[in-house]
Amino acid sequence: MNRNYQTATGLKHDSLPFRLYQKAKKFGQWDPLAIDFTQDRKDWGNFTDEERHFILQVLSQFQAGEEAVTIDLLPLVMAVAEQGHLEEEMYLTTFLFEEAKHVEFFRLFFDSLGHTDMLTPNTSENYNRIFSVELPSAMQRLRTDTSPEAIVNASVTYNMFVEGVLAETGYHGFHMSAAKNRVLPGLLQGLEHAKRDESRHIGYGTFLLQRMISENGDLFDLVSQRMSELMPLAMGLIEDNYAHYEIPPFGVDADEYLNFALRQLGTRLDVLERARGKSMNEIYRMEESEAGIV
Ligand SMILES: [Fe+2]
Ligand SMILES: [Fe+2]
């Protein structure tokens, strides 16, 4: 096989994926092992049973979700590499490393509390549908089908929905609960890092989808159709999580999560729709702020 090595023409230093790669090298270097959970352990002892149940439930979903996205990313990396997008592949090496660290971070939190018996996220049918059916099947499809439609379907499911709606909503709601009550500082510190990493992941998905929509405007219809299919699962998951409580734990109710999830959906679709009519050059030079990257 004859390769056209990019080293002959140079790397696209100004392109958004390469800027993301540089950013990840700079900001993605936090170490979950360096986080101190001493105060978190003390706070844990002061929580009510309901509060502990709530935290274990939400965080076990996070933990399993991080594990799922770590396992399911590889087919996308392969598809992007096969199509010769070297700068994107270089960025994606940091993406997978960061997901692995998120898995480690949540595990360390549970370990620090002595909790090996965390709740299983399988208690929610909506959660199961997302992480055992929708996400793996969208990603695994790329092993045999790297058509634009398959890549769009995978990136919408992974980057726009699981990361852009579910994880962002979870981070927001959880941050409200813990920060408002000034508890769990170690957990909050790790979540801040993870959230920043996620902004790059979602930013990459925004770039990838914009690149594809700019080549074929009809793909935007697929984006919005896929998001409409998935959104009821997010709403259902939030409702499942709150079904156990008469009074919402930590003073944050389901509406806070539901409204945030809907706002996220609107933002994602608005940004992607803007790709219609943009030139490829404009997309490669997109500012970080436009893709929501911090
Ligand atoms: Fe993550
Ligand atoms: Fe992520």
Task: List the main descriptive attributes of the protein structure presented here.
294 residues; mainly alpha; Ribonucleotide Reductase, subunit A; globular; binds fe (ii) ion
Bound molecule types = fe (ii) ion
Approximate helicity band: over 70%
Can you identify the CATH superfamily? Ribonucleotide Reductase, subunit A
Class by SSE composition: mainly alpha
Helical stretch count? 11
The overall average pLDDT, rounded, is 92
CATH topology: Ribonucleotide Reductase, subunit A
Terminal Cα span? 40 Å
The major beta sheet can be summarized as:
none
Secondary-structure element order, N to C = HHHHHHHHHHH
Find the count of extended strands (DSSP E, 2+ residues): 0
Molecular structure report:
With 294 residues, the chain is mostly helical. It has one domain (48-291): Orthogonal Bundle (Ribonucleotide Reductase, subunit A). It contains eleven helices and no strands. Helix 1 packs parallel to helix 5 (86-112). It is globular and about 60 Å long. One fe (ii) ion binds at residues 66, 69, 99, 102, 194, 198.
